[in-house]
Amino acid sequence: MTVTGLREENSAQVVVQSLRDTPDERLKAVLSSLVEHLHGFVKDVDLTHAEWERGIAFLTEVGHMCDDTRQEFVLLSDVLGVSMLVDAINNRRSATATDTTVLGPFHMVASPPRDLGANISLDAVGEPCVFAGQVRSSDGTPLGGARVDVWQANGAGFYDVQQPGLQPERNLRGLFVADDDGRFWLRTVVPRYYPIPDDGPVGRLLAATKRHPNRPAHIHVIAEADGHAPVTTHVFVEDSPYLDSDTVFGVKESLIRPVVLVDDPQRAEHYQIANPFRLIEFDVILDRVTA
């Protein structure tokens, strides 16, 4: 019997060879590439035993921080730019389709179905506003019946899952069905910029690298329609702090919108909001799925 020992010069090859009988070809390809890059990284930085132990302890703590309403591994992926890279690779779209961005770590509970025009701000923390738009196909056709999932932080910069017992459940979340013209509208509050949870290992990593934990103000949107590729995106508030330094690298210029002051009694009546009112408008363009 010949024993092939693992040495510094052949480490990746030995481990990759051990994967040769993996029946799932995609799993074999992913693991093989991971091993090659991971071993290359270890050699590139001359990783010490102490650093290896600290890395294992860090990842262990990241796992311990995860629960039903917090995903520390998603935060880690976000702040290292991996989430945005995966998003970019998996969302190569037409030039007319709405840009995508990260899902974020706070889509941890299902948004409740709500009627068009409903007020999703159950705690009334923040400046009232209307969020409205139209879902269209990339050829301009309105997509009646499109589903629009919306969630956001309140005017103090917190999501409902961050303040259980203080915010009502499913606060600032809603699942809407667009009308026959693909239009949707709802009442909410102007969101505020906020820090991602930084009381755990990911926060300490940001501090160690002199990075802030903040995200600019935004509203999350997932839009879907039959026969079309769904879009997961954000609407960023124009002039919000941190647009140029989002800690999860999620900002795209095409997704920035102003908060407009509207003085129009008829429109205010339509939206069932006091006049004048704040308005954020955002149309969503979906690519048709081809067989």
Give a description of the structure.
- The chain has helices at residues 11-17, 25-45, 49-64, 72-79, 82-90, 201-208, 265-271; strands at residues 128-137, 147-152, 173-177, 183-189, 194-195, 214-215, 218-224, 231-237, 256-257, 260-262, 277-281, 284-286.
- Helix 1 (11-17) packs antiparallel against helix 2.
- It contains 7 helices and 12 strands.
- It has 2 domains: 8-47; 83-286, Protocatechuate 3,4-Dioxygenase, subunit A.
- The strands form 3 sheets. Strands 1, 4, 10, 11 and 12 form a 5-stranded mixed beta sheet that branches. A 5-stranded mixed beta sheet has the order 3-2-7-8-9, with no helix packed on it.
- With 291 residues, the protein is of the alpha/beta class.
State the end-to-end distance.
53 Å
Strand content: 15-25%
Question: Helix amount, in percent?
Answer: 25-40%
CATH C-level of the largest domain: Mainly Beta
CATH architecture of the largest domain: Sandwich
Q: How many strands in all?
A: 12
Succession of helices and strands: HHHHHEEEEEHEEEEEHEE
Number of domains: 2
How many strands, what sense, and barrel or not for the largest sheet? 5 strands, mixed
InterPro entries: Catechol_dOase_N, Intradiol_dOase_C, Intradiol_dOase_core, Intradiol_RC_Dioxygenase
GO molecular function: catechol 1,2-dioxygenase activity; ferric iron binding
Pfam families: Dioxygenase_C, Dioxygenase_N
Cofactor: Fe(3+)
Give the key terms.
291 residues, alpha/beta, Protocatechuate 3,4-Dioxygenase, subunit A, five-stranded mixed sheet, 7 helices, 26% helix, Catechol_dOase_N, oxidoreductase, catechol 1,2-dioxygenase activity, dioxygenase, Intradiol_dOase_core
